[in-house]
Amino acid sequence: MIDLFLIGIGTGNPEHLTLQAIRALNGADLVMIPRKGESKADLAELRRAICVEVLANPATRIAEFDLPVRDGSIGDYRDRVDDWHDAIAEVWGRTLHEGCGETGKVALLVWGDPSLYDSTLRIAERVGKGMPVRVHVIPGITSLQALTAAHAIPVNEIGAPFLVTTGRQLRDHGWPEGVDTLVVMLDGECSFRAVAPAGVSIWWGAYVGMKEEIIVSGALEVAGPQILTARAEARARHGWIMDIYILRRDAR
């Protein structure tokens, strides 16, 4: 049996790791680090930096692997994601087998938290269908927590609900009924542009919790263009970007 520890690492800042996460890392026989291509080499480097910072067990080994690229062609989005997850699971399984055989403790560092808009658990379930794997989850700081901390705001109004959604959902279906506060994740298209800006405020952040952190807030009609410029410049500079934002309508 392989014990697979999915460890939430927040935004990659070693100071965001919990004591539970540090103990799990030091108890692992193997730490898997995915590589996402040359343009996102910093992401693998951040995971390596975490290992250098917190690993005190000289017996723990590091195994790096190339992450399959998702098919960006036109077609059913869900089918393409399923195929991508199958490909990732195959690579995980091969890396696990080569690194530990059929027994051992393996850690995988996960951005944010494995529970919130993350497919790590679904991929781990696929791996478990082909080999004996027991999954353990170590929660981490989510990008939502890091965003609200960066802006020093609560996510909700008093007694009011909020909705966590994706850029795709906002673009395709508009502002959901019955809620005035939206948390928008996984948005590479700046989907706030599809929202009528009157009476809407935005709190946006990229690389939240990291030294590269950028935050912008204000009325959407003013802050929106500022975010577009800051985002494009940051992506060109780093080769990648991770961002998240909150939209709030004035109470009606």
TrEMBL record:
GO MF annotation: an example: precorrin-6A synthase (deacetylating) activity
InterPro entries named in the record: 4pyrrol_Mease, 4pyrrol_Methylase_sf, 4pyrrole_Mease_sub1, 4pyrrole_Mease_sub2, CobF
Enzyme Commission number: 2.1.1.152
Catalytic activity: precorrin-5 + S-adenosyl-L-methionine + H2O = precorrin-6A + acetate + S-adenosyl-L-homocysteine + 2 H(+)
Keyword terms, alphabetized: Cobalamin biosynthesis, Methyltransferase, S-adenosyl-L-methionine, Transferase
SUPFAM superfamilies to which the protein is assigned, alphabetical: Tetrapyrrole methylase (SSF53790)
Pathway membership, UniProt: Cofactor biosynthesis; adenosylcobalamin biosynthesis
Residue stretches making up the Tetrapyrrole methylase domain: 4-221
Record-given protein name: Precorrin-6A synthase [deacetylating]
Species this chain originates from: Albidovulum sediminis
